[in-house]
Design a protein that fits this description.
Blueprint (H helix, E strand, L loop, with lengths): L4 H10 L3 E5 L12 E3 L9 E4 L12 H6 L4 E4 L10 E4 L2 H12 L8 E6 L4 H14 L4 E4 L3 E3 L4 E3 L7 H13 L4 E5 L2 H5 L8 E6 L7 H4 L2 H14 L1 E10 L3 H9 L4 E5 L8 E9 L2 E8 L2 E7 L4 H16 L4 H9 L9 E4 L5 E5 L4 H11 L7 E5 L9 H12 L2 E4 L9 H13 L6 E4 L3 H11 L5 E5 L6 E3 L4 E3 L2 H12 L5
Parallel strand pairs: 2-3, 3-4, 4-5, 6-10, 6-11, 7-10, 11-12, 12-13, 13-14, 18-22, 19-20, 19-22, 20-21
Antiparallel strand pairs: 1-5, 7-8, 8-9, 14-15, 15-16, 17-18, 23-24
Helix pairs in contact: 1-3, 3-5, 4-10, 4-11, 10-11, 12-13, 13-14, 15-16
């Protein structure tokens, strides 16, 4: 269906988003919109350019560039002088860009079962588990998240957890075209607060937990929680439900605030009739757990590690149960879920250690991961990690202290140094190691591949080499360039050099 500038403007007006149209020629409004974009460099002939403000420059500064590239109109929150194309003046450019993109793509969210997953930790794994259950139940499901975007046919590496609105709507449209019945999407606090999910309404949601993260952006935990809560306040539809972890204090708060719509799940604070779980057995190869669903009990063997993945499984089971999936389908979906890239990925080395790759890059996440691995390790833990530059400096000594309390050997390396000196970042981590009560062996090896190889060379059978911070990322980011790199590829390279097989 062709979208005219007039019909799109009418849609924004109906959504109480459009204030006025600035145009010298009414005929301009009959022109066909070819795209909706927020980057003037990507504006093409017929595009509608949305003037979103960045961290350093205002969006209206790029309106002329977009016009020169062929844009037929702009969305802005103020009139722009000396601009020869129509201007749609709106109350909120962020919201308007999402609504405009949704309308341009035919309101794809209205044609899909929409499931949003939010919280600090566990979003990616929970999203993968939900998708796996839906697949087991015969429902084709797309995925938008931290690791990948999948439109039901094609997979691409994710740029960010919740992408900008035009890309979200394009992905949803492709899912519809590819025959998807549903979409499961991670909703980050940035994505919610910056209105990237404008144009999306959800049928189901998950709240995993909340721990300190992104406080440089939100300021404090109250603001961080308020951003997450916005998903349930502004973006749900119909007889919606949110599955919330009541073992987490913020998850319990969600249950109280949205009580008519909340489905509780827990491992510890459980009561009769609610969805709950218990771990039967746990090893380096996975966990066996029981899941109590209303009216039934299922036992599942999961290719996942640790209690927090038991929570992720409960979240997925709760969501699927609320949608009417049977216990047998839920069990099959959980047990057949493919490995989640960079989320406690386990690799067994022939006659050598177990290697675990994880994305953990905050003190809380590192503590959860290392605490999960420690009781499952028959030998010693070798921990390889660093920290990203230009952000969260206060976390560096905290990471060092967490590492010192749980690892036997530490190799401090680089992560994404960006504009900082990776040696300086490493020394700040070492300050935390030195100030801890633990006394682990540590060394600094800045080259990350060399650091991984050193740990693998020195670890023995029964040991675990835990590599954290980058997970599925495939590059290292410096100030003025990026370098191809993957922790998994570093492991494979070591195996090839040493004549070892991954089992």
């Amino acid at each position: 269906m062709e979208v005219t500038l007039k019909s799109l403007a009418e849609f924004l007006f109906q959504r109480r988003c459009l204030k006025e149209i600035v145009s010298s020629d009414s005929g301009d409004l009959s022109r066909i919109v070819s795209d909706v974009c927020i980057d003037s460099r990507l504006a093409k002939r017929g595009a509608l350019f949305c003037c979103l403000d960045g961290t350093k420059r205002r969006g209206v500064e790029f309106a002329q560039d977009a016009a020169k590239s062929g844009a037929i109109a702009v969305i802005a929150n103020e009139r722009i002088l000396n601009l020869d194309i129509p201007q749609l003046i709106v109350t909120d450019t962020k919201e308007a860009s999402g609504l405009a993109a949704a309308y341009f793509h035919g309101l794809p969210a209205s044609k899909l079962l929409m499931i949003g997953v939010t919280g600090t930790n566990g979003k990616s794994t929970t999203a993968y588990l939900i998708r796996s259950i839906l697949k087991a139940g015969g429902m084709k499901c797309g995925l938008i998240g931290t690791i990948i975007y999948h439109d039901g046919t094609r997979e691409e590496e994710a740029d960010r957890t919740t992408p900008q609105a035009p890309l979200i709507q394009s992905l949803l449209s492709r899912m519809v075209q590819n025959g998807c019945h549903a979409c499961v999407m991670e909703a980050s606090s940035h994505g919610i607060e910056q209105k990237r999910i404008a144009g999306c309404l959800y049928d189901r949601a998950v709240f995993t937990n909340l721990t300190p993260e992104h406080l440089d952006y939100h300021g404090n935990m109250d603001n961080y929680f308020a951003a997450k809560k916005g998903l349930f306040e502004r973006h749900m539809r119909g007889s919606w439900k949110v599955s919330t972890n009541i073992d987490d204090p913020y998850g319990k708060a969600i249950q109280k605030i949205f009580e008519p719509y909340a489905l509780e799940f827990a491992i510890h604070n459980k009561s009769e009739g609610m969805i709950s779980g218990f771990i039967i057995d746990s090893s380096i190869r996975g966990i066996d757990m029981g899941i109590n669903l209303p009216g039934s009990l299922i036992n599942v063997s999961l290719p996942l590690l640790g209690e927090y993945n038991a929570y992720n499984s409960l979240a997925a089971a709760s969501t699927a149960w609320s949608l009417g999936f049977s216990p047998d389908v839920i069990k099959a979906g959980l047990e057949s879920c493919p490995p989640v890239p960079g989320r406690l990925e386990r690799y067994f080395v022939e006659d050598g250690p177990v290697c675990v790759i994880d994305y953990a890059h905050t003190p809380d996440a590192l503590e959860k991961v290392a605490s999960t691995i420690k009781p499952l390790c028959d030998g010693e833990i070798w921990l390889v990690f660093g920290h990203g530059g230009d952000r969260f400096r206060e976390n560096r000594p905290l990471l060092g202290r967490v590492a010192a309390s749980l690892a036997d050997h530490i190799v401090v390396t680089m992560d994404n140094p960006r504009s900082e000196d990776p040696e300086d970042i490493a020394l700040q981590i070492v300050d935390g190691i030195k100030s801890s009560l633990g006394n682990p062996e540590y060394r600094i090896i800045i080259d990350r591949k060399q650091a991984v190889h050193f740990a693998l060379d020195n670890a023995k059978a029964g040991d675990v080499v835990l590599i954290t911070g980058k997970g599925p990322e495939r590059q290292i980011i410096f100030k003025d360039h990026t370098m191809p790199y993957s922790d998994y590829e570093a492991l494979k390279d070591w195996c090839n050099l040493r004549g070892k097989r991954l089992l």
